[in-house]
Amino acid sequence: MTDNSNEDSLHSANDATSITFEDITIFANNVYQKKYQDATPALVDILEKVILDRFHQPDSGEGSERTMTFLASAITTLFSDPAFALNETGFRTLISLKMALRRIFVVTPFRDMTHIFGSLGEAKQGQVNIAPENLTKLMLIMSIDCLEDPFFQILENIQEDVQILIWISLLDTRYLLTDREQTNLGRLIAMIDKIKPSSLRNPLEIQSACRVWFYCSYWDHPRKHDVKSLINQVLKLTALEEGYIHHKREISPVAAKGRPTLLLALENWSVNSAMFRCYSKPFGSLKQDFNVVAIVKRDSLIAGSEIFDEIVFFDEVRDMKKNVRLIENIDPDIFFYPSIGMDSTTVQLAQLRLAPIQIMAAGHPASSFSSEIDYLILPEDIVPLNLDSVSEKMIAYKKELAVVFQRPEIQAPVHEADLKTDNKEVVLVCNSMYQKISPAFLDVCKQIQEEAKVLVRFNFLTGTDGFSDRAVRTSIEKKLKDVSIFRKLPYQDYLSIIAGSDLQLTPFPFGNTNSFIDAMLVGVPTICLDGSEIASRVDGMVSKMMELPEFCRAKSINEYIKSGLRLVENHSERGEISKNILTSDLDKVLFSFRSDSPQSYTNIIKYIAKNHHVIKASDQKVWYLDEQLS
Asked: How many Å apart are CA 602 and CA 289, to the nearest integer?
């Protein structure tokens, strides 16, 4: 987890990129004066900035709630007025920003937009019959936490050019924490064969689709990757419709030349990013054998530029035609994505064939499910047990030879288990971003707390902002007692809370890699669920690297609960594990790098280029470099 400031205050009025109270007041005045032609674009501007987290509220209390309630009340008035009618463009714009609407209302006493139902039709015997002309408004106010049976029937039969847009909007959320949200997620995914793919028409629609593409990896559902496959179809249709590629480009084999051109698409390369921490050292040797060109957003390349031969920048306004032309002019032999999903531009590019060989790494540990990505490079310890959860051919390397974690440049506090003289109270920590927390994980925490023979208290380091904090806090507090929930914190403060805890529980199914390593830095024992997919196997890999006891890597939810209770109730065993962590050579285990490794990234990519046709023609899904290079 990177260093995040906890200063959440409203930006000043001279910050044009942030929402101000004046912006909200102007919007509200336009609404109450029925100047809807002025109110609608003002609302769109506010919602766009909400999605970008450019509205920072006070830490807590009446000021935050009052401001958001003022905004939510004006939105309620707007949507409730029969005179407010949306044309197709207005509807498509607002439905693409539904996530922002939900974020606003959840901060207020309204909690959601269901109170608007009554204004959309005639109420009889506790039922509201929605007037046909208000169906578009119904689509806007419904969200995944309040779906009812009739809505699914409406969605199934709606015209196809907006059906996919509405379906995506319901899935466009950064968290799924309640049992009802989980149930509705299942119902929406079950509809997937009835959802007709169609092209998207504007950047807001594309951004919404790409957010779902990214966040679906965190969901706890066996068919979550089907969502990604459908969105890939939509993005390909959009590329064809918008003319990103005017014809099928002829792709020649990798050129037999001294240094083939390797294009690296970097989603985030700031010095504190997880991507830079994991990949900056391994990528340092690529220049020896490749002409390394990095393509990146202009504002994100902060460090490590010396490891590239050339740096080019994506178009600042995300013009995909210009981005594709730029890449075609570079004419790469190999296009390498260290991660796909954290930026909408790379998600769209991953649907296109722009180089003879296209590779991704597990920077965001999930398959692309794109037919245009040939290979996924990953450590052999996280090869999924469920091979169908990956669409690419997998090239598996020894974990300690090609990737390395970077030690944070900070003096970490130390967990002092020996200072605890009794075991009357045990503090458990979940230091995980909120999108990784699932209802099933909260149920496990609840069961451990209820069944333990000692008092169990929880620390949740969720990294929430002002919009997400209330929803996350409410969901956690409904299931757990004696729980402290923390928003974004400076890294030193964050580490201190971990060090003051007795045991870390990592969430599932996605896992918690960098936060797992943070717990190792301070010496806190950790339990994880070693699952069947890539994202749920990374924690198990780190646990093995640290030689934690085998029972700390649970194979099932029942094992997870059993292991949690074992360490909660056994102070001496926790202390022994903590001692072993603190006496481990972390620099050797986690932070060392062998630049001369036969399985360096340079050699891995050379191996792929040399054997590309053989690998592609084979039915073999996983290629272990240990076997291939021996």
From this structure: 7
Query: What does pTM read for this prediction?
Result: 0.92
Handedness of CA 50, 51, 56, 58 (dihedral sign): positive
Cβ proximity of 261 and 364 under 8 Å? no
3-state SS, 237-269, equals: HHHHHHCCCCCCCCCCCCCCCCCCEEEEEECCE
pLDDT single digits (tens) 248-276: 455 555 555 678 999 999 998 887 777 88
Cβ neighbours for 153, distance < 8 A, ≥ 6 positions apart: none
CA pair distance 369, 355, nearest whole angstrom? 18
Amino acid at 72: A
Q: Which two tokens stand for residue 125?
A: 């015997």
- Please provide the DSSP assignment of 580-594 as one string: HHHTS-HHHHTS---
Task: For residue 68, give the nearest of 53, 77, 57, 79 by alpha carbon.
Answer: 57
How far is residue 224's CA from residue 218's CA, in Å, rounded to a whole number?
A: 9
How does pLDDT run across 475-501, given as a tens digit for each residue? 999 999 999 999 989 999 999 999 999
DSSP three-state, residue 458 = strand
Q: Tell me the β-bridge partners of 337.
A: 360
Sign of the Cα torsion 523, 578, 440, 115 reads: negative
Read off the amino acid at residue 188.
L
Burial class (CB in 10 A: 0-12, 13-18, 19+), 263: buried
Whole-angstrom Cα distance, residue 439 to residue 568? 21
